[in-house]
């Protein structure tokens, strides 16, 4: 079981921000061997959905209201620490993200840019393909929408 907290950028303390950035780098840069600019200037606008286990950040997303990233509300930087994936925390953090979008922004239509190999995971969360696949930072992605 993970403890999930929702915070604005200004509510994050230094340790939380460091742990979030470390997890994102650990998975997106090192594990996926992808050199890209993670610090993109969008964290300040986002709501941060943080999954803690034993006071350690093990899962994370950032969410945006419609117009801040895509036409619709969106969820991005979906990440679960590799050694914690067997517990299916991806579902917990995504469900908490959908709930945060509804409670903070009063929106239910959500767009994501999903890594293609995770399509079935997102289908299980009622996200469905939108258009053709594309490369983002050299990794196959597909747009997906939840109504």
What does this structure look like?
The protein is of the alpha+beta class. The chain has helices spanning 14-31, 89-105, 119-124; strands at residues 3-8, 47-53, 56-64, 73-80, 110-115, 128-136, 139-146. The chain has one domain (3-107): Gcn5-related N-acetyltransferase (GNAT) (Aminopeptidase, 3-Layer(aba) Sandwich). The chain contains three helices and seven strands. A seven-stranded mixed sheet has the order 1-2-3-4-5-7-6, sandwiched between helices. Strand 2 and strand 3 (56-64) form a beta hairpin. The two termini are 28 Å apart.
Task: Provide a brief overview of the structure.
The protein is of the alpha+beta class. Helix content is 28%, strand content 36%. The protein has a single domain (3-107), classed as Gcn5-related N-acetyltransferase (GNAT) (Aminopeptidase, 3-Layer(aba) Sandwich).
CATH architecture annotation name? 3-Layer(aba) Sandwich
Assign the CATH class.
Alpha Beta
N- to C-terminal distance: 28 Å
- Main sheet? 7 strands, mixed
Strand fraction band? 35-45%
What is the alpha-carbon Rg in Å?
14 Å
Strand arrangement across the biggest beta sheet: 1-2-3-4-5-7-6
- Count of alpha and pi helical runs: 3
Which stretches are low in confidence, meaning pLDDT under 50 for 5 or more residues running?
A: none
Estimate nothing, just give the exact number of structural domains.
1
Helix content: 25-40%
């Amino acid at each position: 079981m993970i403890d999930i907290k929702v915070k604005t950028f200004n509510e994050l303390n230094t340790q939380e921000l460091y742990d979030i950035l470390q997890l994102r780098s650990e998975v997106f840069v090192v594990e996926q061997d992808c050199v890209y600019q993670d610090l993109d200037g969008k964290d300040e606008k986002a709501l941060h959905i943080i999954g803690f286990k034993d006071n350690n950040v093990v899962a994370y997303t950032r969410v945006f209201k419609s117009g801040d990233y895509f036409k619709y509300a969106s969820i991005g930087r979906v990440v679960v620490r590799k050694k914690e994936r067997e517990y299916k925390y991806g579902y917990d953090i995504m469900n908490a993200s959908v709930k945060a979008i509804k409670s903070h922004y009063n929106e239910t239509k959500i767009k994501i840019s999903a890594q293609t190999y995770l399509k079935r995971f997102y289908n299980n969360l009622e996200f469905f393909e939108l258009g053709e696949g594309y490369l983002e930072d050299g990794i196959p992605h597909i747009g997906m929408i939840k109504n």
